[in-house]
Amino acid sequence: MKVVTGEREYFKGIDQIKYEGPESDNPLAYRWYDENRVVAGKTLKDHLKFAVSYWHSFNGNGSDPFGGPTHRFAWDEKSDAVERAKDKMDAAFEFMTKLGLPYYCFHDVDVVDYGNDINENDRRLQTLTDYAKQKQADSGIKLLWGTANLFSHERYMNGASTNPDFHVLAHGAAQVKAALDATIALGGENYVFWGGREGYMSLINTNMKREQEHLARFLHTAKDYARAQGFKGTFFIEPKPCEPTKHQYDYDAATVTGFLQKYDLLNDFKLNLEVNHATLAGHTFAHEMQVAADWGLLGSLDANRGDEQNGWDTDQFPNNITEVTEYMMVLLKAGGLQGGGINFDAKIRRNSTDQADLFYAHIGGADIFARALIIADNILQKSDYNKIVTDRYASFDSGEGKAFEEGKLSLEALRDYAVKNGEPAVTSGKQEYLENLINRFI
Q1: Rounded to whole angstroms, what are the CA distances from 42 to 20, 137, 144?
Q2: Which of 336, 334, 279, 340 has the alpha carbon at shortest distance from 304?
């Protein structure tokens, strides 16, 4: 990949990051992510489709609920919104091409600051879309997905498509139209809907049924518009249970799946799952992935993690090899992602203030997923893992068990079988054995 810079180099002293192998002690090199290595019939680059998040990486300033910014960006110096946004895009593509990852993702307001004038916002986004189009052509980097931020502006304090005020819904539609237009123009492979405030703070003043019907109608309307403009990609819903609202309608993978089925959206939508959102919902990420995979909806992943001692969405970079290996086992067994990739929806810490810290974070994230995928493939191909799981359900593969699965046994027949065969044998689930097996391959 060719390094692309603007008139100014923002990450001085850092060259293109290359793969050097597991024995390397160079902190600015990949140790496991060899993009051309073939695993389970595909290269790591094609399996993982890594993407850089525009928002955390180039807009995240280190602020938190208890303190202001700690990250000062050289690309934020100009007063004019469009010129400042171009500087930021110069920095973004310099970073991404030096990092060598193939994709990026954005919200509309990440790309350029928005005001309250819809026409001016559209003009700004169109200008930056044209600018990004040239950057993509020069670098070879692609847009994995675009989306609209329908949660930060004060007008969305009660939601966007689920807002009780139709006027607010219309503003959300205007933003989504512009974001879809930009995504299509940039060859975006997918489009994401995250309902940041599509939920409620209190049921006392909420008509939940009507709000969910409005959300479904909004998604259909946006989908129909994009298809009419020639968009062939996949639409994703990103589940999250709470924060900022008390309860969000896209609570978890199972909730979203039921919603898509009820409102006839399954043909066009899949799931974009985030690790820390699974944690907030009380699930493991492997669970959320398995729910999506079982429905054929495993679309894309946001890679991050939470903190066991903090109860909010801390969006830290992934670093737990055991957990990520379990994710990759689900991914491989499901046949891979459907349309999406792995987006580093993660931010460096408030006190990580060196320009190299952003590189260290992404290098570590890419390496942990690449290493985990290699390990997961070895487990599935070279151990008795699959046999143990298959054998656990062997009683349903023939005889009366198979007849039950085929719907051929009545409740009376099941009772007769239980009486005739007496007490079932106690059979081990071999959990500790399998945990040790995974650790052995790690």
Answers
A1: 20, 25, 19
A2: 279
Where do we find the tokens 């980097």? Answer: 141
d(CA 408, CA 350): 60
Exposed / middle / buried, residue 114 (Cβ in 10 Å: 0-12, 13-18, 19+): buried
Among 235, 236, 252, 148, residue whose Cα is nearest residue 199: 252
Closest listed residue to residue 113, CA positions, set 91, 128, 102: 128
* Residue showing tokens 């030096």: 98
Residue-wise pLDDT tens digits, 56-73 = 999 999 998 899 999 999
315 is catalytic: no
Burial 353-387 (b: 16+ CB within 10 A, else e): eeeeebbebbbbbbbbbbbbbbbbbebbeeeebee
194-221 pLDDT per residue, tens: 988 999 999 999 999 999 999 999 999 9
Separation of alpha carbons 73 and 41, rounded Å: 41
Establish whether 362 is a catalytic residue.
Answer: no
Q: Single out the catalytic residue among 47, 56, 71, 107.
A: 107
Give the pLDDT score at 395.
98
The lowest-confidence range among 5-9, 302-306, 360-364 is: 5-9
Report the chain's C-alpha Rg in angstroms: 24
Which whole-number Å values give the CA distances from 129 to 74, 135, 149, 151, 432, in the listed order?
22, 10, 16, 22, 52
Closest to 314 in 3D by CA, of 291, 336, 345, 285: 345
Burial (0-12, 13-18, 19+ Cβ within 10 Å), 334: middle
Q: Looking at the predicted structure, is the pLDDT value of residue 142 above 90?
A: yes
Residue 247 near residue 199, CB atoms below 8 Å: yes
User: Cis peptide before 102, with omega less than 30 degrees from 0?
Assistant: no
Own/partner pairs, 168-177, CB within 8 angstroms, 24+ separation: 169/214, 169/218, 171/118, 172/148, 172/218, 173/218, 173/221, 173/222, 174/118, 175/108, 175/121, 175/148, 175/149, 175/150, 176/148, 176/150, 176/222, 177/222, 177/225
The residue whose two tokens read 């790690």 is 442
Q: Which member of 34, 110, 345, 377 is catalytic?
A: 110
At 335-357, the pLDDT tens digits run 999 999 999 999 999 999 999 99
SS (H, E, C) 253-312: HHHHHHHHHHCCCCCCEEEEEEHHHHHHCCCCHHHHHHHHHHCCCEEEEECCECCCCCCC
Cα separation, 181 vs 194, whole angstroms = 18
